[in-house]
Design a protein that fits this description.
heterodimer; A: 488 residues; mainly beta; Tachylectin-2, Chain A; Trefoil (Acidic Fibroblast Growth Factor, subunit A); five-stranded mixed sheet; four-stranded antiparallel sheet; B: 259 residues; alpha+beta; Jelly Rolls; ten-stranded antiparallel sheet; 4 helices
Chain lengths: 488, 259
Amino acid sequence: MRKRLTVATLTAAATLSAVSAYAQVGSPFIHDPSTIVECDGKYYTFGTGGGGLISADGWTWESGAVRPGGGAAPDAMKIGDRYLVAYSATGGGLGGGHAGRILTMWNKTLDPNSPDFEYTEAVEVAHSLPDEDCDAIDVGLFLDPNTGRLWCTYGTYYGNIRQVELDPMTGFRVEGNEAIDIAIDCEATTMIYRDGWYYLLGTHGSCCDGANSTYTIYVGRSRSVNGPFYDNVGRTMLEGGGKKVISSERRRIGPGHFGRFVIQDGIEKMSFHFEADLDQSGRSVLAIRPLLWVDGWPVAGEPLLKGSYEIESQRNGYALEAMVDFVRTQGGMGGASRNASGQAVVKVESQKLEDVQDSWPQGTVKAMCNYYVDRPWQRWTITPVPEAGGYLGGPYYKITISGTDRALTANALAEVEVAPAFTGAPNQLWRIDQLTDGNYRIMPKEVPGHPDCNYALIAIGDVTPTLAKFDFNSDNSKWKFRLYDPQN
Amino acid sequence: MRKTITILSFALMAILCCPDASAQKNPSQKEIAAALQGYFTPVKTPAARPDDRGFIRRWLLLDPISVPNRTNRVFTDSYTRESILHEWFPGQLSKIPKDGERERVEMEVQPPVNLTAGRPAADTPVPGLRKVNLYWHALDSDVFFQKLFRMAANLGNTRYGVLFWGVTIVNCEEDIENVRLAIGANNAAMFWVNGEELILVSGDRHMNIDNALSKRITLKKGRNVIRAAVMNGPGMSEFCARFVDEEGRPVTNFTVTLE
């Protein structure tokens, strides 16, 4: 009985771990989430129907955000020291009329418990008539970093996606501004800017059909804020074009309603919803993924899953390892010897943990980097620790030598070592962010005695890792995870 | 008694909502031009060319056949094929209709959409099967695609839950080998060239150019008949079509006529 219970517990834990790497925890249930906005150290996102989610760490989300007006698919952004929230009051929708209204309102804070929490009266900034080629819903806000001008996009599958200009001081429509068509037949548009390109993101496919939704996020880009926005094969979004950003992933179906969150140079996140998370009753859930940039296009990264990996420094390709004696592999000495010709080809076993671990010191050893030769002291198991909380888009992980409890640890000297056991202490919990170039930043939750340093794992020498300031422009700061597959 | 009154009320409402569709008349060219301004222009010249990007803008388009699907979730491959290939009017896969020609089509007539209200309830009574006059319209599109929704909405009442038929003729001075028909459609659709079915797309899709391409075919010297059928539930029906060569470049060395 006890054994069965243990097995069941382990299975449940494994399932939980798998879920936790992919999905936000808490009650992340929302449809059509706005771009995530940070306010006084907490994260907020608003959804269709009013209300929204709040998170203290960006990983655990609960309902509690407050937005009046009801309606559909809001967006939010901080401008100066105020928050602009936009939403749409839609018309008949499918099979009916298509009169819609886009409204904006301000608040000094998004914290509903703050004495300053009070929305201004919502004002209409755009609308659609019952029978024109547009349905004014699904608003997206974009503040052009080059000009300071504020743009608003809206529309759905019913005809054209439109863009109007708002006054960033008032949130009102700029007087005399005429709406322009920038895309057709998509939903949840929003714009972002990077390196001389304006990007228009939209959601294609079918909405609101749970696990049968085909929602998929696409993008086009332009040198002009007003488009035309081209995809990777030369189609404009007015011609229905778009390059994929993210599609369904295994048990999470129908990503839609993109929002970008820039943490710092080189670390960006994208928020959206999955129409159905099959691990959470098929409900619509908030999702957050790394936002990568590949050849000038935004691409969704993936959460780092539990597994056994080589951790490779991008400084010179050395692998992170525990500093123990090098033990030679038995066999595998065929080389190019003439004597080997004519002999049967056989499979030579990889070196196993039990071949070497008796020679390892019992206590803490230093971590270092070296040539990767697939040795047990270079194999790391990365495991989410759901109960340890998280950060925007991810859980903390423990990093242990595969098959052991020996844990990568930040010490009080701001150096990195391998402790004999994982204790769950903050200096053994690691934040792992995929960078915009696809590499990773590895960062301890806490460095003892260095509370405000925000140190990350850095290769300051070819063989010498340490904990120091992260610099996106240096390969010393970047790491890659290569999955260890003993069969290949 | 109350039930009887309710039934009579629904019947009266259906009659008021749907004037005798069998008596529907074909609008004049002037009325069509006014109703479709910005989307289509009635054909005035004997022949047209594809536009610079190869899109065929000249089509004979039939008023929409009502197929009252309330959702696009129904459009599987099988359903799309069966629904389109149901015999709606004689010669639907072979005829070259004339501008203004009438088809008598038996279909489930829908009440008009209430543009100031939400979606009608699923149990809203419908008049049932009726024989309806539908007309072919020879139209040049003002844009690269055929905005079928506007033809439907601006010339009649049936805008959602629809099936459109279109025919056009591509005239080549010589055989053009190894080209592909390239289409985009909102929503499910089938396309034929010279009677051969080349493309079927289904599901809930929006229109984008070159969304689906046929196998390599030869456009033969002389007339080549292109036929399209597009179905939609709620949403804006439209399609675009062109021919592209081996490198994906548009084919433009032909004329487009409707006779």
